[in-house]
Amino acid sequence: MDIETLNGVEKMKVNIGISEDHREKIAAGLSKVLADSYLLYLKTHNYHWNVTGELFHQLHEQFEEQYSELAEAIDEIAERIRALGFRAPGTFKEFNEIASIGEDTDRPKALDMVKRLTEANEQVIRTAREALEPAKAADDEATIDLLTERLTVHSKTAWMLRSHLEE
């Protein structure tokens, strides 16, 4: 058994066929995806609670589907970071420091919510694409698969949201 001591704590080394340097870069990219996903989750849940107007029912249901899916995805992303041997960020402060998605400072109307969620989903797509590079470089199929799934989900979500904005 290969044991290392870090800050006086013994732990078993991660030996999954990916170097520590690669695992660290992958975990850093995944942490950004996690932060963006979490802030998107909060934004979507907020909009679910607060949407009003003639599109209320449709958007209320759509936002619920989206934040429910995000809740599961957030857990999977964090667990992948842990499987790589690193601590997953888990505080709002940590997320805010590394996220590309910001909080709302106002109370948007329904179609502004849709526009902002479209933009936020597209941001998660860009963040996931950046995170793919170190995973590809390390032949980390598990992370590649996870990120590919996130790209698929967020692309479809952005398309569906964007459709509300077209005439």
From TrEMBL:
InterPro entries noted in UniProt: DPS_DNA-bd (IPR002177), DPS_DNA-bd_CS (IPR023188), Ferritin-like (IPR012347), Ferritin-like_SF (IPR009078), Ferritin_DPS_dom (IPR008331)
Top-level taxon of the source organism: Bacteria
Molecular-function annotations in GO: ferric iron binding; oxidoreductase activity, acting on metal ions
Gene3D superfamilies reported in the protein's UniProt record: 1.20.1260.10
Span of domain Ferritin/DPS: 28-166
Protein family membership: Belongs to the Dps family.
Listed PANTHER family: DNA PROTECTION DURING STARVATION PROTEIN, GENERAL STRESS PROTEIN 20U
Protein name: DNA starvation/stationary phase protection protein
Classification of source organism: Bacteria, Pseudomonadati, Balneolota, Balneolia, Balneolales
